[in-house]
Write a structure and sequence with these properties.
Elements lengths: L2 H5 L5 H16 L2 E5 L1 H8 L6 E6 L2 H11 L6 E3 L4 E6 L2 E7 L1 E5 L6 E5 L2 H6 L9 E3 L8 E2 L4 H7 L1 E2 L5 H7 L2 H13 L2 E2 L1 H10 L8 H12 L6 H10 L1 H5 L1 H4 L15 H15 L3 H9 L4 H4 L1 E3 L3 E3 L3 H16 L3 H13 L2 H8 L3 H11 L3 H10 L6 H29 L6 H8 L5 H15 L7 H18 L1
Parallel strand pairs: 2-5, 10-11
Antiparallel strand pairs: 1-2, 1-8, 3-4, 4-5, 6-7, 8-9, 12-13
Helix pairs in contact: 2-4, 7-9, 8-10, 8-11, 14-15, 15-18, 17-18, 19-22, 20-22, 24-25
The structure holds adenosine-5'-triphosphate and magnesium ion (MG).
Magnesium ion (MG) binds next to loops.
Length: about 475
Amino acid sequence: MAFLELLFPPDDPITKILLRIAQIAERNNVDAYLVGGAIRDRILGHETKDIDVTVVGSGIEFAKAIAHSFRLKKVLEYPRFGTAMVPYHDIIIEVATARSEQYENNSRKPKVAEGNLHEDLSRRDFTINALAMSLNKESLYELSDYFQGLHDLDAGIIRTPLDPVTTFSEDPLRMLRAIRFSTQLGFKIEDETFRAISKVKDRMVIISQERITEELTKILKVPRKPSQAFLLMKKCGLLEIILPEIANLDGVDQKNGYHHKDVFNHSLQVLDNIAEKTDKFELRFTALIHDIAKPQTKRYVEGKGWTFYGHEELGARMVKPLCRRLKLSNKIMEYAEKMTRLHLRPIAIAEEGVTDSAVRRLCVDAGEHIEDLITLCRADITSKNPRKVAEYTANFDRVVDKIAEVEEKDRLRAFQSPLHGDEIMKICNLSPGPAVGYVKRAIEEAILSGEIPNTYEAAKMYLESHKKRLLSEI
Ligand code: ATP
Ligand code: MG
């Protein structure tokens, strides 16, 4: 039994789809192969999300045959690339025509020609993504591994199938993909491959911002330690090209209570801390950029050390152009701007004494993002001194308690009897005056103490049965 057969057991939902695709391939007399991430992820024991299929012949025709057999109406065709996508429940089946490509200089638009499986795999980005599993009857589950992908998967190595300089020059986005896979899988980028990135990095400018941002987003969403990617980008020089604001933080030292390390390493630590708590993209992104104005605001103050007065305000103002350039949505931009502007406020509140009005003002300014803001503040504690960490954590705990307390008070203040004054007057036969207020407060008290539920009916019944007593008390 081929070892892949063990990884794709017959009752597995992905296997079921693959076996159906194999039948369709046989019926249509085409060679089909499973390629790319699905094989890599199965071997690594990760969940398989998408199915990438390569056929020797027309990928688009084959995608239509799949859709027909699965009774699906939707096929997204990309004739220029010879590919098509078939969404099937929450799985996307992507079908490509096996191809050989030639790139022209200064362009990432390949001239596509039909090719065989070997040619197709050789133009893929990394050896670990250049494995193919046969979906053909006579060789079902058989693995094609022309570039030692299995070895590299086992050894944890990212390497290009062909010459890395050529591979990266042809499609420079592959450099970012190398860094993303390395971070996501905990793999090492092989030395020659990494040197090639340093050499070819300037070609990144031919890649559209949309593709770069898509890859950056995937990097920021890596489950654990996304910082690794930024360290690699810094090391090979890509960071200066795609995120100079972050590259500029390198070497800006800071030493005061909450922080240590230079601003670059501090920001990466905050990012990793946040990644432990949430996979929310905008919060992770804000963690990365919240200190971008520190280089510009850095001043040395005798007796205090390095200070960064106003970096939260200047930083907030830098967020808009940065997000525009990255083509992020307005929603993310506004979120990151607000969070950057407010990121010191909880610290100030904790230090200056937690008054109701300061807390209330912060809640109003942060609005629905107050919890995220506190999460950011907690992640912002990167001190290595356990005593300080405990102290700052306790400070934020007090702020959180105070927020809950103030919210509760405000909720009670905003609370109103479900029975309005005119009805109280009618039921009790009163004319306008302080007695109406007295009765109303009595109803509110009965609700707040839990004696009756907060409904119109209950309040009315309560009043009818207690009105005699209440009126006698006035
Ligand atoms: P994931 O979906 O987790 O990002 P994946 O390997 O499935 O990983 P996709 O972007 O879905 O990545 O691409 C599918 C396959 O197509 C890859 O495994 C790789 O073989 C090939 N591929 C994708 N992008 C490129 C590229 N820019 N250059 C060369 N090959 C690529
Ligand atoms: Mg994929």
